[in-house]
Design goal:
heterodimer; A: alpha+beta; 6-stranded mixed beta barrel; 13 strands; 25% strand; B: Rossmann fold
């Protein structure tokens, strides 16, 4: 029985700690997404194409125009970002809106050069839709605010070109070359951003990219990011621009995390399952050893249900002890794991294991172990209840 | 119990048949046995091994179902009732003493005696403990109430079993070779207890024995052979 108890304890504990890790990393990835690219991204304008339908109109021409979703025309970018921003701010769940002008340009220092993605932003607006303020690792955001030709450079890009705050570099687009100074270096942890993205002021971006009006996209943050798909659909309907929620943009990675979470849950549940089998074996043995006791209890007037209840109670006691010990072990292990150092860069930036503390991990661990233990107890309990006292006593006494 | 008169028929069976085993090995053990037992008397069933004594006792104790025939306890036909009713009747009317004491060894003598009372639920915890102590005192184990089953000698264990059989003041005590595993002194002690308490409390005792001395001291002796009384 102690084997089953320890099995349940470790099964519950490992279930909790693996769920805490996978959920933790998933949650941290989502936080990183929201802190870099926002909950929603408003992009190209969608224009429904209209086509005439033949009918008897005046002078033999059709009077009907039918709009068709299947033939929508996509107009790149946003022509009137201020009007769209104003409209979007009226949605209740919207917490911030930032207009972004983006393009590929060539970066050059004294010794090297590379193609980068420049983003022109109004910094205060952008801080409301990103965690850029907390992503600064060297230099200062205040410098960027004060310097019209200041730039925020991704950590990997800065490292590759040996750029430090105060250093200057040029950006070139379509023959125009403008010089900028590194105000600060940021690190999101997302390799695709830190390697290529440079933030400059919107006015500078308009000059560099020779685009006095319009925007490439609008980044939007929400109070409740989980509602992004519903909000995206409503906003798209109202403004006629394509709106991409973070769940759709990052579907591949989110699916990977989900698959990892389920697979670890299934793997760890096998420990609980094996403990259940051990418990089944133990209880089945106990039933065989205790047939005389069962018979004597039946002779005293104990019913079949009373007998079954004895064995189910044994299961319940082992389950309760195992679940409580497992939850404590799981909590301690989760805390311990959260202190383990691990350096991850690429999809997010962390220097230690990321864990999520959720009561649901404990609830699910207890539910799974309860189902397994109860199933394991029920069969021996029913077998015990079915024993005929006369058969048992006759077999012993004659 | 005080309103009941010694001599009343408390358990009765009629034309009991029972076969045991399967297929070619099936044996017709009870061949139409009829029997009755009276309050306050000790009935000894004797006979050679395999003649059906214990099988009859288990039938009377509702631990087994007859293939044919009927059993009445306190005038109520019970032989073909549901398992629930038969189980309830065992708790209410019957007390068992087996050759092997069948104590629950993980429990003390006191807890063993309280066990039938717990199921019946007539008394509260304190009253059950008091009655169990009284019964253990009656069988000479008043000083050993808190000993675990496996800390008692064979004779003491069997005396605890007698006390346990009396716990719910049953109408009938069924004893299967109650002294079969005991020495002469303990055999006489256990039989004396059963006989005295049964007579004092107006309970019928039906015992199966191979011991001629025990049989001689019983009020009534019935000899069985090949599944019938002779």
């Amino acid at each position: 029985m102690y084997m089953s108890l320890f099995g349940i304890m470790f099964g519950v504990g490992f279930f909790i700690v693996t769920q805490a890790q996978t959920s933790g990393f998933e949650g941290f990835f989502i936080k990183t997404i929201l802190g870099t690219n926002g909950a929603l991204r408003i992009e190209d304008r969608l224009q429904a194409t209209l086509f005439p339908m033949e009918a008897d109109g005046a002078a033999g021409r059709s009077d009907f125009l039918i709009a068709s979703d299947g033939n929508r025309k996509v107009i790149p970018g946003i022509e009137d970002p201020q009007r769209i921003s104003e409209a979007v701010r009226h949605f209740k769940n919207v917490s911030g809106v930032s207009v972004v002008l983006e393009n590929s340009v060539n970066l050059a220092t004294n010794v090297s050069g590379a193609a980068v993605r420049v983003q022109g932003v109004n910094i205060d607006d952008h801080l409301a839709v990103s965690d850029l303020a907390s992503q600064i690792v060297r230099g200062s955001l205040a410098d960027f605010r004060l310097a019209p030709t200041g730039a925020l450079v991704g950590s990997m890009l800065a490292s590759r070109h040996n750029l430090q705050p105060g250093d200057s570099f040029t950006l070139e687009w379509n023959g125009a070359v403008r010089r900028y100074r590194v105000s600060a270096i940021y690190e999101t942890g997302v390799g695709d951003i830190d390697r290529v993205r440079v933030y400059i002021h919107m006015s500078e971006a308009r000059s560099l990219l020779q685009k006095p009006t319009g925007a490439s996209f609008i980044q939007v943050n929400l109070f409740d990011a989980s509602r992004a798909p519903e909000d995206a659909a409503r906003i798209q309907e109202v403004i006629g621009h394509a709106v991409a929620p973070w769940q759709r943009r990052e579907k591949t990675w989110l699916d990977v995390f989900r698959a990892l979470r389920f697979s670890s849950a299934i793997t760890v549940s096998t420990i609980i399952l094996i403990s259940g089998l051990a418990m089944f074996n133990t209880l089945a043995m106990v039933v065989m050893e205790k047939t005389k006791d069962i018979a004597i209890l039946r002779s005293m007037g104990y019913t079949r249900n009373d007998i079954a209840r004895i064995f189910i109670w044994q299961g319940v006691i082992v389950l309760a002890a195992g679940a409580v010990a497992g939850c404590l072990f799981g909590a301690a292990a989760t805390y311990g794991v959260s202190k383990l150092p691990i350096r991850i860069r690429g999809i997010f930036s962390t220097d230690s294991f990321v864990v999520a503390w959720s009561v649901w991990h404990y609830v699910w661990a207890v539910v799974i172990s309860s189902v397994v233990v109860m199933a394991a107890s029920l069969i021996p309990a029913r077998r015990a209840a079915r024993l005929e006292p006369g058969d048992v006593i006759r077999g012993t006494s004659q | 119990m005080s309103t009941l008169k010694n001599g009343e028929i408390v358990i009765r069976c009629e034309n009991l048949h029972r076969s045991l085993g399967r297929d070619a090995g099936r044996v017709h053990v009870l061949r139409g046995v009829s029997f009755e037992a009276e309050r306050g008397r000790v009935h000894a069933i004797v006979g050679p091994s395999g003649c059906g004594k214990s099988t009859l006792l288990y039938q009377l104790g509702l631990l087994d179902r007859p293939d044919d025939g009927r059993i009445w306890i306190d005038g109520e036909l019970i032989s073909n009732s549901s398992d629930e009713l038969r189980t309830a009747a065992r708790g209410l009317h019957l007390g068992f003493v087996f050759q092997f004491h069948f104590l629950l060894l993980e429990f003390s003598a006191l807890e063993n005696v309280m066990m039938p009372m717990r199921k019946l639920g007539r008394l509260d915890e304190a009253a059950m403990a008091a009655r169990a102590r009284h019964l253990l005192g009656e069988v000479g184990l008043g000083e050993k109430t808190h000993r675990l089953g496996n800390e008692l000698s064979g004779g003491e264990q069997q005396r605890v079993a007698v006390a346990r059989a009396l716990a719910n003041e049953p109408s009938v005590i069924l004893a299967d070779e109650p002294t079969g595993n005991l020495d002469q002194r303990n055999s006489e002690l256990v039989f004396g207890l059963l006989a005295r308490l049964a007579r004092e409390n107006g309970q019928a005792v039906v015992l199966v024995t191979h011991n001629p001395d025990i049989a001689k001291r019983s009020d009534r002796v019935l000899e069985m052979r090949d599944g019938v009384f002779i």
